[in-house]
Amino acid sequence: MRIHVVDHPLVAHKLTTLRDERTDSPTFRRLADELVTLLAYEATRDVRTEQVDIVTPVAPTIGVRLSHPRPLVVPILRAGLGMLEGLMRLLPTAEVGFLGMIRDEQTLQAKTYATRMPEDLSGRQVYVLDPMLATGGTLIAAIELLIERGADDVTAVVLLASPEGVETMERQLTGLPVTVVTAAVDERLNEHGYIVPGLGDAGDRLYGTVG
Ligand code: URA
To answer: Among residues of the chain, what percentage have pLDDT more than 90?
Structure first.
């Protein structure tokens, strides 16, 4: 597994506003969307392309286009939905699958409650979206499912990561074709499984609290 922390002043600026507890939901959604587009620029560095012959108004030349099969983008519901448009802005022809996962707040284990994506992901590049890499449980379960279905290159785009989550992923996904792209790796996880200093509950900050 590889991890790439995107070190850019605009990323740090947007992340700081996302962290601020005074940032309201509409602003949080807009900034999360913008931040994902910046992360997506780095995350798609190895997106597969093929050569194509074209003719410009001046001369024939050889260019590139995204190869087939198209990449698959998989937001993890619910909070990953707030990242979808930000990524699709750069990959508008990608296909989209959905994975519903919820973390049991007592055991911190991930449970899958909905899956909507191709059964066969052989040869597919997949971008999985989840704002917070906290314990790593949800992302590991999601990535294992994608690789079981045949995905041969998985990039997880997360806004924030904890050192504990990164270490667990590195241990459990050793040798697998997985990259994590994030805006920052924070200090630690607290006893409730929240990232410190973090930004709070990403789903609640995007969409409001649900009981
Ligand atoms: N999920 C969140 O939304 N925030 C955290 O800090 C950890 C997990």
So the answer is: 92
Interval 40-58 mean pLDDT: 97
Per-residue pLDDT, averaged over 10-35, amounts to 98
Annotated binding residue 133: yes
Higher pLDDT, 106 or 21: 21
Specify whether the backbone of 123 is left (phi greater than 0), alpha (psi in -120 to 50) or beta. Answer: left
CA–CA gap between residue 98 and residue 73 (Å, rounded): 8
Q: What is the mean pLDDT of the chain?
A: 95
Phi, psi of 103 (to 5 degrees): -95, 125
Residue of minimum CA distance from atom 6 in ligand 1? 194
The residue type of 90 is L
**Residue 108 reports pLDDT greater than 70:** no
How far does the centroid of ligand 1 lie from the alpha carbon of residue 196, in Å?
9
Structural domain boundaries enclosing 16: 2-48+67-207
Number of domains in the chain: 1
The reply to whether 34 falls in a domain is yes
For residue 185, give the CATH number of its domain. Answer: 3.40.50.2020
Distance 197 CA to ligand 1 centre (A): 11
**pLDDT value at position 210?**
63
202 assigned binding-site residue: yes
Given this model, what pLDDT does residue 211 score? 54
Which protein residues touch ligand 1 with a CB less than 6 Å away?
Answer: 132, 134, 193-195, 198, 201-203
Q: With respect to residue 62, please indicate whether it lies within any of the assigned structural domains.
A: no
Q: Is 167 among the domain residues?
A: yes
Q: Which of 164, 154, 104 is nearest to 130 (CA)?
A: 154
